[in-house]
Amino acid sequence: MRPKDLSNRISEWFEGSGPGADIVISSRIRLARNLAGYEFLPCLTQGRKRQILRTLKEAILGIDLGESVFYVDVDGAAALEQELLVERHLISRQHALGKGPRGVVIATSESFTAMINEEDHLRIQAFQTGLQLRQCWERINRIDNLIEEKVEYAFHPDYGYLTACPTNLGTGIRVSVMLHLPALKMAGQIEKFLQSARDADLTVRGLFGEGTEAVGDFYQLSNQVTLGVREEDVVAQFNDIVVPRIVEYEQLARRKLLDKQQDALDDKIQRALGVLGSARLISSQEALFLLSHIRLGVNLNRIPGLSIRTINELFMLTQPAHLQMNQGEPLDPDRRDATRAGIIRSRLYRN
User: Fold this and answer.
1) Are 188 and 194 in contact (CB under 8 A)?
2) Burial of 62 (0-12, 13-18, 19+ CB in 10 A)
3) For residue 160, how far is the Cα from the chain centroid?
4) Number of continuous H segments (helices) and E segments (strands) in the chain
5) How far is CA 4 from CA 89, 120, 315, 321, 328, in A?
């Protein structure tokens, strides 16, 4: 299997069918690990990087992940293939832009990936649609244990798992959810949410992770504290307290929009439909912005005949690398905008 084989389909964790998926798009848990006896990545020679890549690749491909997997040589992949993997959240942008031997093991369902030689020697991720953090934890914990049976991790009895960045020291765990919060944005309450997250030592990022803004009202919320905590406690806090509270605020904002600003709400939704249904050129940023309004309209039953899956597909398949990969050739910005507009028109009218 190759990255191109992914370009015309939606990731299973992004299909919009999980618990609370109208607001919680997806759940993800990531673990950072390093091999004992090796320097951290910035200090490694190319030869040592190749040793780590070979060791971890063989270990991961040799365990039972419960489904088929495939390997991508990120260092040897074309720039468009690297960007496609970033758009699908299968690798980070840092991994795509890195230098030297590096790769990624990907489950065919895309519910699991293992980045080798990113910031740490190994970063494994588990994804689920909707709010399913416990399911993510059960899976990634099992896989982590299987890998640790084959390799020795760098571990200190006082500090836990040793990581390249001190913010990951200890458990090395990052618990995150991708949230769609358009009503809080429309109600002018999003800054209050962002400040509350910062006060609670949480990190908020955009759709594509670190260094990105929240385009299309998508926000990735994750923990910052990894030292001196139990993984199960972090997962439970997010799954049972933090995320349900945010979902409740967004639901309340949606009810208020319906009760007190229904005309303004419908105007935003119908304007978005009008533009996307007739535009001949549209950028990825504008498309995300307008599709966000339509997604809200579908969830609030303001638009008959459209499904969340269709809207989620448009979010993913109209990203630049997906467009070019499916067209079979590089496209300049104007051609990308024209192709994107055509795909959106055809999907909206077809459904």
Assistant:
1) no
2) exposed
3) 26
4) 13, 10
5) 15, 26, 18, 10, 9
Separation of alpha carbons 123 and 91, rounded Å: 10
Cα–Cα distance for residue pair 294/269, rounded to 1 Å: 6
Buried b (16+ CB within 10 A) or exposed e, 239-254: beebbeebbebbeebb
- Based on the number of CB atoms within 10 Å of its own CB, is 195 exposed (0-12), middle (13-18) or buried (19 or more)? exposed
List the structure tokens of 149: 């049976």
From residue 138, alpha-carbon distances to 27, 66, 93, 174, 298 in Å are 13, 13, 26, 14, 32
Query: Positive or negative, the Cα torsion across 113, 30, 83, 72?
Result: negative
Contact 150, 156 (CB under 8 A): no
Phi, psi (5° rounding) for residue 204? -120, 125
Confidence (pLDDT) at 208: 56
Q: Does residue 35 register a pLDDT over 60?
A: yes
pLDDT band at 126 (very low <50, low <70, confident <90, very high): very high
Q: Which of 123, 102, 122, 124 is nearest to 112 (CA)?
A: 124
What topology does CATH give the domain 3-253?
Answer: Creatine Kinase; Chain A, domain 2 (3.30.590)
In the beta sheet, which residues pair with residue 202?
A: 223
Residue 323: pLDDT over 80: yes
